[in-house]
Structure prediction request, 396 residues.
Amino acid sequence: MKLLTLNFLTCARRTCKSSPLSFPLHPCDAELEIADVDFSLDFLRNILPRLEWDAMVALCSELSLPLSATVPAAAELSGAGDEPTQSAKDLHHLLLETNITAGKLVCGNCGHEYAIKEGIANFLLPAHMV
Amino acid sequence: MSTQPPDSSDYESEHVHQVYEQIASHFSSTRYKPWPIVERFLLSLPDGSIGLDIGCGNGKYLSVNKNVYILASDRSTNLTKIASTHQPHSALVADTIALPHKPASFDFAISIAVVHHLSTPERRREAIHSILALLRRAENGKEAGKALIYVWALEQKDSRRGWDSGNDQDVLVPWVMKEKRPKQPKKNRSKDSTADEDPTKKDENVDLENNSAVGPKHQSGEKTFHRYYHLYRSGELEQDITHADGLVLDSGYEKDNWWAIASPKS
Ligand SMILES: [Zn+2]
Prediction:
């Protein structure tokens, strides 16, 4: 599961959604792996303003990965001739190519742990928890 | 007489989820062409839109538009694994009525051939409601997020199944999976694998009718699974959306299916 995904995930329990503690979920015992994804400057430009940057910074620091404390401005993503800058390539690598292949995602509100196996996170809840 | 199934998610677990998990790879090999209405909807989205594919199956709609970002989910782990190969999107295992996403935050959603697997009107409306709840509300002159919902129609008298308005709406539909037989002549196998190329066909592949044409039923090496469906009547999808606090923006019929595009009421 690519790190970008985490920006859009909360606890699946209805009672947790209203709590700010249910976002972001906290990776635990995470195993990371890199997988190539085609680079698209437009995709990156479009997705950056939609990220909860502080949450992503916190997540990355939990995973000991580097992410600048402030959102890069659009101008920092491309240089002359619309060539992607190194910082655009780094962001692509971090958000789209860095995957959690195994481990858990833990809700900061209820403590429920969602397993990640073979890169797939499982959010199915037992009936009494929905 | 309608065979109303028991009001229970156990029933759906047995007659929908477990079946898909077991037929996943076979099912997936038959599902690779997008339906035109769905394709049109996905291609009409502005670049950079962020949305959901709820009940994504093998993820065949994830290859339609790479300029949007889709978080796809399905109850079947095996199908989700196949879906997760489509970049730049993401796929996860989750239930339609307990999705791990923030409410009111997505630009769009698609839910293709999913809601009709829920076995009571209440559960179908709850599912639609939870899909709409994830969409952005209209604000600052920006319109609300849109969901495309697609369900199987009762009125399909020209299909191979031949159901029409007088038939039961709650049905168990067989799926026959052939196990690989080493000595099967090659031309037969390739016939099987292309049986599904018509993108407008809904539930074709190797089902009972097909099999009876090529050999005796219940021959060894076959396994039959039954999936539960609620077949929608004309107008019923729109009613369910209205009951779920949705606003129907557009709706129609496409080859054996009813579809609607809806937004949450502001
Ligand atoms: Zn929680």
Observations:
- Chain B has a mean pLDDT of 81.
- Chain B is about 25% helix and 25% strand.
